[in-house]
Automatic annotation (TrEMBL):
It is a multi-pass membrane protein. The keyword Glycosyltransferase does not apply. The complex comprises the extracytoplasmic solute receptor protein and the two transmembrane proteins. Pfam families: DctQ. The chain crosses the membrane at residues 21-40, 52-69, 90-111. This is TRAP transporter small permease protein. Residues 26-160 form the Tripartite ATP-independent periplasmic transporters DctQ component domain. It comes from Cribrihabitans marinus.
Amino acid sequence: MLRLAGYIDAINRGIAQVLRWFALAMVMIQTGIVIGRYVFGVNSIWVQESVLYLHAALFMLAAGFTLLVDKHVRVDIFYAKAAPEIRRRIDIAGHLLLLLPSMAALAWWSWPSVRNSWKILEGPISVGGIEAVFLLKTLIPLFCGLVALQSVAILVRLLAEKDPA
């Protein structure tokens, strides 16, 4: 099971290695948009939407990696001053009772919209925009899957630790 957790970690690390370039691309494209608009009087909705697509992909697909490196938002009321074993138990409960059910619910309720979007190959958000809203909506189940997989990997490690109680 620990080997499986390692493979899941590798998937999210690999995705993060690609996605980090999305941030640079977003900055470069946005700079080009500003220069194009204010210096040359040129504008493109397609190019503007490309920043939105990159932004969505960056944040939705990097969420699993964020969980892996423990940089996610944590409600820190009891956790910060708790003993390591209490933290371990809080983490296990959080993954089992909150995170995994949330990912399952989000995937379940978003799936009809994603499926319908693929059926009709849903077009652009704005006239002249990127004709691939179906790809944008596909980020939702991918987000759920990557976060849920990373949650499972973390749970495997937490459960493999010895419980002194």
